[in-house]
Design goal:
heterodimer; A: mainly alpha; Formate dehydrogenase/DMSO reductase fold; two-stranded antiparallel sheet; 14 helices; B: about 300 residues; alpha+beta; Alpha-Beta Plaits; 3-stranded mixed sheet; two-stranded antiparallel ribbon; 9 strands; about 30% helix; about 10% strand; elongated
Chain lengths: ~425, ~300
């Protein structure tokens, strides 16, 4: 095995860095606008109105957030369902990203809905015809599944490490036992949750695309198509591996490790065909519905569409096909960033750019408050990620108990 | 992961399968109160009769307890300079358009919820807060609404309005076809007050006959089109006019119900949970096969 001597472990680095301080400031800024939204209402903080009921809180925080957390289920499918075990090193970081991503999606939804304290209503008030209901229920269940999938990381961290002080010390043994029991039980049923996670992901990633279909002619024909659910699913799958590559390269740089280029460039190889299928459906749909006529017009919609497809799909697809790109951390990073940018822009386009209400008195552009909350949430997510990988065994590090020169000296001999 | 054997696998999978089937039967029975009655009521708006007095705007505000200027102020025609839309404080508004046939007599069009026969808001609402009632009214339930505004995204007529300025219990507001009044046998407030009988309240099927008759008797006064007869599968409110409807700012819509495509996709994906359950089984099988054939250097 390539990385047999790699083992997930807490990263030993200081929490505070100049970058972290910037993130903290951005997070506080976002939270203060969030506070204003809770006290004065949505209208006070956003540019939303009766013509434009949804803005970037839905387009970016929710729709793009869900898509960019797709690394969780694509790596789970690869590592656990297909048992490609040499990808195990990337499953945990991807799982953590998905977990935090979905947590912030849920937070963003609660912030965007007018009556946040009724967020639980869909659990007992069902409407089977509503695409949003399907998305909501699937996301809620999937989030619980993600937390369950993450539990072994927590039991692993605390087994043999329960050292409560004072009168609580009598509990030490019991907690230890409980953790062991939980760990054993989990390892027996975990496969149920892993498959469930993949199924739920395909369901809500596609249902998210169904959302805008009901808007019918209010959505620009370049994006409005009955195969939107398929396009959403394909683009989510296609961004899964690039997102993992992107994070892995960033994390190894931030924590001063060597990037796991072998695994990452393999992921890059797999990204290309998926992007190709997505592109084929996207272009095919354009020709079937003959929407390419709208590209001859020069307006926001046509420009955004061209940027999305050219820079977000075609160029990174070509890059992932090149061996030189897949071997270089920098080029791999650029190609992955482009795919992420493409999917992010696609979700913004579907939910914001494409939305053209029949009666509008001006156009929509996000307010400072909306942008601040979106950036604030993203910063908070990165900070939490850092806190967790510094304290829990998420990122795979060289195992100190083994020296590569002894037991696993002949690296790659057993490949 | 590695410890569980084949029997465990099937046992757990079976339990999960039963749970999902149990869920699916209860989902299909969840909502049964949306009724498309044969005798549903409607309103025929004859824009050739409307004089733009805006009495209906005043009556609507009174009937729904919305803040209102005194009655006299509603004769002010300067508001017609700009197109207005229904919002949280005015559930119906009247707009004015130039009349190419006779510039002295402008065309006035009252706007409110169309009360679709197959409403997009009813289909879209995440918690089923909207319902199509037996008398044709599409109403909203404040006890369910979570304020997600998906109804506003879905509505082809851009009607539901949201109280963006409220932090606690913001409401979705739209014409409710005077649901409380009609229950007690009263006319909708706007229909009752209209001084020129531009609004006719009655069973929708009768209204279509009346509209046809009017167009037939005075073909030079009307375009041959009843707006709302077929648009998005039919609406309870129907319009006849002397001018093409697109020139009066009506959206050009097809005959298919607005929720049609999205509902058939939803039902395709979730057909009694068969597709998700099959995917689950497929992945489970794949997992089981690859497990036995795992690569030699397995690290765990």
């Amino acid at each position: 095995m390539i990385n047999s001597y790699m083992k997930p472990a807490p990263v030993s680095k200081k929490f505070i860095t100049p970058g972290v301080i910037v993130l903290i400031i951005l997070a506080i800024n976002g939270l203060s606008f969030l506070f204003a939204r809770l006290v004065f209402g949505i209208g006070a903080v956003t540019n939303l109105n009766n013509q434009y009921p949804w803005g970037i809180w839905i387009g970016i925080d929710v729709a793009a957030g869900v898509a960019l957390a797709a690394g969780g289920f694509t790596t789970a499918a690869l590592g656990h369902v297909m048992h490609r075990s040499h990808y195990h090193d990337i499953v945990r970081p991807a799982l953590l990203t998905a977990l935090l991503g979905y947590t912030f999606v849920a937070l963003s939804v609660s912030v965007d809905i007018g009556r946040w304290y009724y967020i639980w209503h869909p659990l007992i008030m069902w409407n089977g015809t509503s695409a949003l209901f399907e998305v909501g229920i699937c996301v809620m269940i999937y989030m619980s599944v993600l937390y369950i999938e993450f539990l072994p990381v927590i039991t692993e961290r605390f087994i043999n490490h329960v050292h409560l002080k004072g009168i609580f010390s009598v509990l030490n043994k019991r907690i230890e036992k409980l953790l062991l029991l939980l760990d054993r039980g989990l390892s027996k049923v975990m496969f149920v949750f892993i498959i469930l996670g993949v199924v739920l992901s395909t369901l809500h990633q596609s249902s998210l695309g169904t959302l805008m279909i009901i808007a019918g002619p209010k959505m620009h024909p370049l994006w409005q198509t009955p195969i939107l659910p398929l396009l959403f699913l394909l683009s989510a799958i296609s961004v899964g591996f690039p997102m993992v590559i992107f994070e892995s390269l960033l994390a190894s740089r931030s924590f001063g490790q060597k990037p796991e280029m072998e695994v990452l460039s393999n992921l890059g190889t797999m990204a290309a065909p998926i992007l190709g299928v997505y592109l084929a459906f996207k272009i095919g749909d354009m020709f079937v519905r003959e929407t390419f006529v709208y590209l001859t017009e020069f307006n926001t919609a046509s420009v955004m569409f061209v940027i999305e497809v050219l820079f977000g799909v075609i160029i990174p697809l070509r890059m992932f096909l090149s061996k030189d790109v897949r071997k270089s951390p920098l080029w791999l990073f650029i190609a992955s960033s482009l795919v992420i940018f493409g999917v992010l822009l696609n979700r913004i386009n579907n939910f914001v750019t494409a939305y053209t209400p029949p009666y509008s008195f001006g156009s929509y552009f996000p307010s400072i408050g909306e942008i601040s909350v979106t950036i604030g949430f993203a910063s908070l997510l990165i900070l939490l990620y850092r806190v967790i990988v510094l304290n829990f065994p998420v990122i795979s590090l060289p195992d100190k108990n083994y020296s590569p020169h002894t037991k696993f000296a002949i690296k790659g001999s057993d490949q | 992961m590695e410890k569980q054997n084949r029997r465990d696998f099937f046992k757990t999978a079976a339990v999960l399968g039963t749970t999902i089937t149990g869920l699916s039967t209860s989902t299909t029975k969840a909502e049964a109160k949306n009724i498309l009655s044969e005798d549903r009521m409607g309103v025929l708006v004859d824009t050739t009769t409307c004089i733009g007095c805006r009495n209906c705007e005043w009556a609507c505000k009174k009937a729904h307890g919305l803040p209102s200027e005194p009655f006299e102020k509603f004769s002010d025609r300067s508001v017609f300079k700009n197109m207005r839309r229904p919002d949280t404080k005015a559930l119906t508004v009247v707009n004015e358009y130039d009349n190419p046939q006779n510039s002295a007599i402008p065309i006035n069009v009252k706007v409110q919820c169309m009360h679709c026969d197959h409403p997009a808001c009813v289909s879209a609402c995440i918690v089923g807060a909207f319902s199509k009632n037996e008398n044709g009214a599409v109403t909203w339930n404040t006890k369910k609404c979570i304020g997600c505004r998906y109804c506003m995204v879905a509505c082809p007529f851009q009607v539901p309005a949201f109280e963006f300025d409220k932090a606690i219990n913001p409401e979705i507001r739209k014409c409710d076809f005077c649901f409380e009044r009609t229950k007690t046998g009263k006319l909708p407030a706007c229909v009752e007050i209209c001084p020129v009988e531009a609004l006719t309240y009655g069973p929708r099927t009768d209204l279509i006959k009346i509209a046809r008759e009017r167009i037939k008797r005075n073909p030079e006064n009307y375009v041959n089109h009843i707006y709302g007869e077929y648009e998005v599968g039919g609406t309870s409110w129907l319009y006849i006019a002397s001018e093409e409807f697109q020139k009066l700012a009506f959206p050009k819509l097809g005959d298919k119900p607005a929720p049609g495509v999205s509902e058939s996709i939803q039902h395709g994906i979730f057909a009694y949970f068969v597709p998700p359950a099959s995917l689950y089984a497929l992945l489970g099988g794949l997992m089981w096969i690859t497990k036995n054939r795992k690569d030699p250097g397995e690290a765990e």
